[in-house]
Amino acid sequence: MKANTIFSAAPSIAILVLAAFLLSHNALATTAGNESSQDSVASKITKVVIQVSDNNPKRWNLALNNAENVQEDLGKGNVDISIVAYGPGLPMLEMQSVAANRISNAIARGVKLIACENTMRKDKLTKQDMLPDLNYTKSGVVYLVKKQALGYSYIKP
């Protein structure tokens, strides 16, 4: 009778052993997956877009400070930062801007400064009226929308 009990229990034991194996294998795969996702987060580029739409030099400097602080805290090579100026904020990027030196320094550090061509057209400005080494976009607002859709963090100082 004992031999019969052992044989009838064998399938149950086999199922338990198989279940234990599968659970431990799944736990190891999950741990490995978590480690690789943590590694990818550590090596991932932080994407930031900053809006400037006020004709206020204090706001312009705050936007430039925000960009500089993000680069210092996360490392210049670990961030992709754009500052887009449009509407009343566009004078920040004009040739006579009081922030011209800071803007040149930001560009030298790898920050992209973006001018809105819609605002330029409305204000009858050309690229010759603007600071050197700028980037341009047809619409500052659409630029912000697209960057946010691509996962950029949005900042409006």
Automatic annotation (TrEMBL):
What PANTHER family does the annotation carry?
BLR3518 PROTEIN
Q: Answer yes or no on keyword Signal.
A: yes
Q: Which domain of life is it from?
A: Bacteria
Q: Which residues form the signal peptide?
A: 1-29
UniProt keyword Signal present: yes
Which Pfam families does the protein's record reference?
DsrE
Source organism of the structure: Thiomonas delicata
Q: What is the lineage of its organism?
A: Bacteria, Pseudomonadati, Pseudomonadota, Betaproteobacteria, Burkholderiales
Question: Which of UniProt's keywords are assigned here?
Answer: Signal
Protein name as it appears in the record: Uncharacterized protein
